[in-house]
Amino acid sequence: MKVKIKKLHPDFKMPFKKHATDACYDVYATSKDDLGDGRIKYGLGFSAELPEGTRLDLRSRSSIHKTGLILSNCIGTGDEGYTGEYMAVFYHVIPTLPPYEVGDRILQIHVENVNQIEFEEVNELSQTERGNGGYGSTGK
Which domains does the chain have, with CATH numbers? Predict the structure, then answer.
């Protein structure tokens, strides 16, 4: 699958994987805007043209715990029709830890196919072993 990337910032670096078996591609911050209320907005310096039937998810990196940041919407999703700059807003919940800076790897992106589904309203669902057991119902 090919994803077209448009460079929007001179310091943009192409998304990359450190290992061939990595599930996601790292992306870098090309701009940082402290919004003054505990939120920080980062630009990623690119826009994309996604193939038909795909989406691009923005996910936190595993090392985010070192920054005191939380991605504001947990996972950001870019739809195939979106061609603007990819950005992310983080909450800086532990101000004593240093946030990401311009040039840092700040997120991972994952591109995947989107299955078209159709919802069907029914009066009953099939019986399963688990049923409606949730929230610790397995006893572990």
Answer: 4-113 (2.70.40.10)
